[in-house]
């Protein structure tokens, strides 16, 4: 039985589809946006002259996937584009409401395809698989839920802790999860045959917070991989001279959930000659909160994934003190690119003691202490960067594909 990967957005669904394709187990990927060579937006981007064409090609590059057979991708922009347009226009709450409605419609579309063309195994992702999994038309389909983040009830408790010290950072982009969203997640837990998680932290949060019975037997650890086509092959980094600032990188949603407030607090306390910070990703906090360190940071905003390897290789360390993740793939991407890692335990499976510094809880004091350690000990920084590159090789795409194959064999799919 072949497997359908379903996700209206991206996350790591392209990697999963590519792994299944390599195992000859992929039926197709059903998604919202994809840079399909035959699509109208792709043709238009390559015909438009000058800046408009470059902008459109750059944006489409965010939805490309080298190596994935375009004939195995079915893209339905109607289920993703409206939410992205609303969010880009600043209507974040509207975008969330639109996303919930469209995710339900997307799941119904998947169920109709499965009923018409199946049977298939379904590989879905949290918050977008509920409608497809619960639909009677998919009752005979084995279902795998890819749980990409800790349970929402854990996050709602964490929000209260953040509010005590950095409430102003929660002003936009970092809401509590609604009861409706949490209920949808429980539907996904209930109907899934297996729930794959990128870290033990996620597994434990699902076990602890969800009332759905039988979860312990469903939960499976499936470590994520990185895109070797983009991030492998980085040259061994040279030592960072003591008279140069250490270039720290954050990549992800610039939000309180990701712990950016702790990085900003830390960078304010560090000497200007010692550190420089780059933020990559959509800014989801009030800009006034970044103003006090405007002369210390570079804000790049959202960039297409193909541009990330070059950006990473210009930096020395990734700092990622997240409060709530699944297992951030950016950790492994950075390691493969030769960056030392400063992360929280909640960020997921990333650095070891050889390749970075893992904080049990994210806070400014520990972030500052970790950054200071790398600034003052350039030999340690260099050793961690080299170790990170070696450790990343153990999390390559072949290992990820092998784990998926073993899971499907165990399930009898």
Automatic annotation (TrEMBL):
What lineage does UniProt assign to this protein's organism?
Answer: Bacteria, Pseudomonadati, Pseudomonadota, Alphaproteobacteria, Sphingomonadales
Name the Pfam families on file: Glyco_trans_1_4
**What organism is recorded for this protein?**
Qipengyuania polymorpha
CDD domains, A to Z: GT4_PimA-like
Q: What is this protein called?
A: Glycosyltransferase family 4 protein
